[in-house]
Amino acid sequence: MHSGDQKSCGSVEDLDRIFCKQVEKTNELRDSLNSFLEMVNIQLVVVENIDALLHDTAYDRDIGRSVQSDIADRFRRLTRAGITVVVTNHITYWRGYPAPALGAFWASQIKNRFYVEKQSDDSDVRSVSTMNEVGEGTRRVQFRIGDNGLEPVRNS
């Protein structure tokens, strides 16, 4: 990763600024999010599979909402500090439409949502749908992942 063309890969110093931490408890996530506010030159925080960490919060209305709200507030503090926050959350279809695994309250805490899904098991077409807090509706774009990256799917 550190060898090769520095222009396309970035510098070693850039790679040294990547920080990765696995958390298994809500308090560890809280502490980590707080520590990111104190780090210098941090621009992006990615929280992968938030639903795995907070899955119990979807079933306990009072305590669950409190925990979800607290975590969302910490994300908002990061964004107000100029840090981009990307959070992945599984989507369920058990009601016949896509819904976040952590429930409607969690969805209401997120300003902009992107749903990325594969159209079917026998197709390489995927779609990304966007929704925002204003409720301007859903926009959907289809694409394929090809040798050169993302490729648009044209309707014929």
TrEMBL record:
GN (gene name): Cbn-rfs-1
Domain of life: Eukaryota
Keyword Glycosyltransferase: no
InterPro entries assigned to the protein according to its UniProt record, in alphabetical order: HRR_RAD51_Paralog, P-loop_NTPase, RecA_ATP-bd
Location of this chain's protein in the cell: Nucleus
Organism: Caenorhabditis brenneri (Nematode worm)
Domain RecA family profile: residue ranges: 1-91
Keywords attached to this entry: Nucleus
Entry GO CC: microtubule organizing center; Rad51B-Rad51C-Rad51D-XRCC2 complex; replication fork
Annotated GO MF terms: ATP binding; ATP-dependent DNA damage sensor activity; four-way junction DNA binding; single-stranded DNA binding
Protein name as annotated: CBN-RFS-1 protein
Predominant location: nucleus
SUPFAM superfamilies documented for this protein: P-loop containing nucleoside triphosphate hydrolases
Gene Ontology biological-process entries: DNA strand invasion; double-strand break repair via homologous recombination; reciprocal meiotic recombination; telomere maintenance
